[in-house]
Amino acid sequence: MTGQDAVRIAEDFHSRVSLTGLILTKMDGDARGGAALSIRWVSGVPIKFIGIGEKIDAFEPFYPDRLASRILG
């Protein structure tokens, strides 16, 4: 899924069920920070958790400063 696909899906989903928070998954595989910022901006809904692995215990709270660091290198 591309960043634009993620944004489109988030918009559609939010319009139907009124989201209160987002979970961004697969953060361990590649840099998805741009999609996260776009989805946050378009939906107006905060990112609450990120997934950093394949198991249920691989979720952690979302810290915006860490994502900014990841994007900027």
Automatic annotation (TrEMBL):
<dbReference type="InterPro" id="IPR022941">
    <property type="entry name" value="SRP54"/>
</dbReference>
<keyword id="KW-0547">Nucleotide-binding</keyword>
<dbReference type="Pfam" id="PF00448">
    <property type="entry name" value="SRP54"/>
</dbReference>
<dbReference type="GO" id="GO:0005525">
    <property type="term" value="F:GTP binding"/>
</dbReference>
<keyword id="KW-0342">GTP-binding</keyword>
<dbReference type="InterPro" id="IPR000897">
    <property type="entry name" value="SRP54_GTPase_dom"/>
</dbReference>
<dbReference type="InterPro" id="IPR027417">
    <property type="entry name" value="P-loop_NTPase"/>
</dbReference>
<dbReference type="GO" id="GO:0006614">
    <property type="term" value="P:SRP-dependent cotranslational protein targeting to membrane"/>
</dbReference>
<dbReference type="InterPro" id="IPR042101">
    <property type="entry name" value="SRP54_N_sf"/>
</dbReference>
<feature type="domain" description="SRP54-type proteins GTP-binding">
    <location>
        <begin position="46"/>
        <end position="59"/>
    </location>
</feature>
<dbReference type="GO" id="GO:0048500">
    <property type="term" value="C:signal recognition particle"/>
</dbReference>
<dbReference type="GO" id="GO:0003924">
    <property type="term" value="F:GTPase activity"/>
</dbReference>
<protein>
    <recommendedName>
        <fullName>SRP54-type proteins GTP-binding domain-containing protein</fullName>
    </recommendedName>
</protein>
